[in-house]
Design a protein that fits this description.
Elements: E1 10-14, E2 47-52, E3 57-61, E4 70-78, E5 84-87, E6 93-98, E7 102-112, E8 115-126, E9 138-143, H1 162-173, E10 182-183, E11 190-200, E12 208-211, E13 215-216, E14 228-230, E15 234-239, E16 253-255, H2 269-274, E17 282-290, E18 302-306, E19 311-314, E20 333-340, E21 345-347, E22 355-358, E23 376-377, E24 382-383, E25 394-402, E26 417-418, E27 420-423, H3 424-427
């Protein structure tokens, strides 16, 4: 993505006078002649500086004493809006990001032993020259797994290259809310996109919504059934442009949805367990799809195998007769990896004619209708590769991939669809996070 003014990384040094109050050789404590003087903490000067809306800013306290014995604490005293983040604020450096212009009042306290000093920091945030769009600004990559809508959403034309397909996806999604829809196919199929600004990770609020086409069933025969219908959950992975080069090449963090560790707290878990469904969440799951030897085969169509010792075939159904293997890919096999969610589809008719795909409680794409609060994501749910929570100031890039490997009879595979994405703060939508 070509970065605009609102996206470059600004380094601002906040001058802080921290000095050692050393005792006089004749009157101070310790051995006469010097040696064991007590180190004192000096004054932190109040600082005023200017930034721009949607600019990640490192606040660096200079001339500060080194060592683990100095404890720094930052806090926001007053702000014209809740659309800001103040992160990594337990050292001499903090990262500040404001989504809206205005005057922000911060406080920083340094403590060393029994000595403590507090300084005030005023941040005047000016409006950026370019207005931030709440929608997707660029598609960086798109590779669906096999599926009944692959080569259809978007439509493949003979001779299309990867770049041609990405251009088509951009035509569907860039700058639009529900402008079109692309399918990620079965497990692992993915899309990578970015915004034209940094989406602020606002404390206590949900920050983004990935649009899909999930909807509820009208005639589920199960009494008191939890929400379900066509729910095809996609795993969401996020990154912020730490190196400032405008490319999605920094570290990625998974949004830990409700089944990140286990699905035991999902309302549908007991009857899925009873039905013998695979209800495990599997980290580092890997699946390989093989190019079909014939496009005429219906049941044993595309062979697949995973790293759990399982294998089988993806079927071709009567409703979609095009190739289900991405036609612009030259390789004869495709391998995808990531977190595999439990199966969420069940034949509630018992006769193969009424399948219900149940929603996970929160944290996924294409899992709840776009108007439901549970389709909105809090960036505070992000975790690192080891599952540890991370404190992101905001994010610039998003990857979504289909999180379920499952066939649902005549409905076909579970395949995540993406119809866009929204920065809720730029859009002016306020949704509290889950408690």
């Amino acid at each position: 993505m070509k970065k605009k003014t609102i996206e470059f990384l600004m380094l601002i040094s906040l001058c802080c006078a921290l000095f050692l109050a050393c005792s006089d050789d004749n009157n101070g404590p310790g051995t006469p002649g010097g040696g064991d003087d007590d180190e004192q903490l000096g004054e932190i000067k109040d600082t005023v500086f200017t930034s721009f809306s949607n600019v990640l800013t490192r606040l660096v306290l200079t001339n500060a004493p080194e060592g683990e014995d100095v404890v720094w604490q930052w806090s926001m005293e007053s702000a014209p809006s809740e659309i800001y983040s103040l992160t990594a604020a337990t050292s001499r450096e903090a990262v500040f990001l404001a989504g809206l212009p205005g005057s922000y009042k911060l406080k920083v306290t340094a403590t060393k032993g029994e000595e403590s000093q507090t300084g005030n920091i005023s941040v005047t945030v000016k409006k950026s020259a370019a207005e931030a769009s709440p929608y997707i600004a660029k598609i960086y990559d798109f590779l669906p797994a096999v599926g009944q809508f692959t080569n259809d959403l978007p439509a493949y034309t003979e001779g299309d290259t990867r770049e041609d397909i990405i251009t088509k996806v951009e035509g569907y999604l860039v700058g639009k809310e529900n402008g079109g829809m692309v399918s990620l196919g079965g497990f692992g199929g993915y899309i990578v996109f970015g915004f034209d600004h940094t989406v602020v990770n606002v404390k206590g609020k949900r920050d983004i919504r990935i649009l899909g086409n999930a909807f509820g069933s009208n005639a589920n025969p199960r009494p008191d059934a939890p929400f379900g219908g066509s729910c095809e959950p996609g795993i969401i992975v996020v990154s912020y442009d730490k190196n400032g080069n405008g490319l999605p090449d920094d570290e990625w963090y998974e949004i830990a949805g409700s089944a990140y560790q286990t699905a035991e707290n999902e309302a549908w878990y007991p009857f899925f367990l009873e039905a013998g469904k695979d209800v495990r969440t599997i980290r580092n799951y890997e699946i390989t799809y093989h190019r079909p030897v014939s496009e005429e085969v219906a049941d044993e169509y595309i062979y697949w195998e995973d790293n759990q010792g399982n294998s089988g075939y993806k079927a071709k159904n009567m409703f979609h007769r095009q190739s289900y293997f991405p036609a612009w890919v030259n390789e004869d096999r495709l391998t995808f990896s990531g977190t595999r969610l439990p199966e969420n589809g069940l034949d509630e008719s018992g006769a193969g004619n009424y399948f219900v795909l149940y929603a996970f409680r929160y944290g996924y794409a294409d899992n709840y209708p776009n108007t439901d609060d549970e389709s909105a994501i809090d960036l505070a749910w992000a975790v690192d590769a080891d599952g540890n929570p991370v404190e992101l100031p905001g994010i610039d890039f998003v990857k979504v991939y289909c999180g379920v490997n499952q066939e649902n009879g005549w409905l076909g595979e579970c395949s995540t669809e993406v119809a866009g994405a929204v920065d809720l703060h730029v859009k002016g939508i306020s949704i509290d996070t889950r408690k």
